[in-house]
From TrEMBL:
Organism of derivation: Anopheles arabiensis (Mosquito)
InterPro entries: Cys-rich_flank_reg_C, Leu-rich_rpt, Leu-rich_rpt_typical-subtyp, LRR_dom_sf, LRR_TM_domain-containing, LRRNT
Superkingdom of the organism of origin: Eukaryota
Alphabetical list of PANTHER family matching this protein: ANTIGEN BSP, PUTATIVE-RELATED, CHAOPTIN-RELATED
Cellular component, GO annotation: plasma membrane
Species classification: Eukaryota, Metazoa, Ecdysozoa, Arthropoda, Hexapoda
Protein name per Swiss-Prot or TrEMBL: Uncharacterized protein
Length: 260
């Protein structure tokens, strides 16, 4: 049980060798990224709770190495994007909850290979725009919201997943150029996250980002290699935050950076 701490990153070696671990509780932290193969040795893991964190995207094979996973809870994050391979290989998965995120659409093959006995999914208050349920098990039923509870997901229509007042936005792609961290604004290489009450550095940015505005937030630390995947960055503004810790390699790889 690691809930209620200040964990921000799940590193590849954090749970190495814990082959008998069955339950991992990581709620109420500041986790914004999970490194590739971070769960590699957790072959007995049945329940993983990552709710109430700062995840913005769930990348491909994020949970690779945990084939016995039955319950995956991702509620109350800032997720805008799920890669179609995020849960690939989780053939025992029965419960997936994504309540209170910023998801507008799910990949067409998101649930390919899910268990035949059915799976309980919850998308309450996710702003989900559409879902293709053709590959879900025939007895997969909605758990929430209330008006959809108990209904067969395969029988629902696109309109059933639309929230009132939702505007049509182009779907985002995990790791793609169009991925703008919620609730920031992105245009012409500038990612504007000023005064958005952020507590962590965004884990995903558009590929063409050259300027990152993070001033007037509540960011407390700059983690290792926080911007390593964004070598085009020329300017980063972190003024007026609550930063007390900066990793020694926080800005490594930023050869184009001219203003910090």
């Amino acid at each position: 049980d690691l809930q209620g701490n200040n964990i921000s990153v799940i590193y590849e070696s954090d749970f190495q060798g814990l082959a008998k671990l069955r339950i991992l509780q990581l709620t109420d932290n500041h986790i914004y990224t999970i490194e590739k193969d971070a769960l590699h040795d957790l072959i007995s893991l049945e329940r993983l709770d990552l709710s109430h964190n700062a995840l913005t995207a769930v990348p491909k094979r994020a949970f690779k190495g945990a084939p016995a996973l039955r319950s995956l809870q991702l509620d109350n994050n800032q997720i805008t994007c799920l890669d179609e391979g995020a849960v690939k290989g989780l053939t025992e998965l029965e419960i997936l909850t994504l309540n209170n995120n910023n998801i507008t659409t799910l990949p067409r093959d998101m649930f390919a290979g899910m268990p035949r006995h059915g799976m309980r999914c919850a998308f309450r208050r996710t702003r989900l725009r559409a879902i293709n349920a053709s590959r879900l098990a025939p007895y997969t039923r909605c758990h929430s919201p209330g008006q959809l509870k108990g209904q067969n997901v395969a029988d629902l229509h696109e309109q059933d997943f639309k929230c009132s007042g939702l505007t049509e936005n182009a779907p985002m792609e995990c790791g793609g150029r169009s991925l703008c961290p919620h609730p920031c604004r992105c245009a012409d290489g500038i990612v504007d996250c000023r005064e958005k009450s952020l507590t962590t550095v965004p884990s995903t940015l558009p590929e063409d980002t050259t300027e990152l505005r993070l001033e007037q937030n509540y960011i407390t630390e700059i983690p290792p290699k926080a911007f390593a995947n964004h070598r085009r960055l020329k300017r980063i503004d972190l003024s007026n935050n609550n930063i007390s810790r900066v990793a020694y390699d926080a800005f490594s790889g930023l050869k184009s950076l001219t203003s910090l």
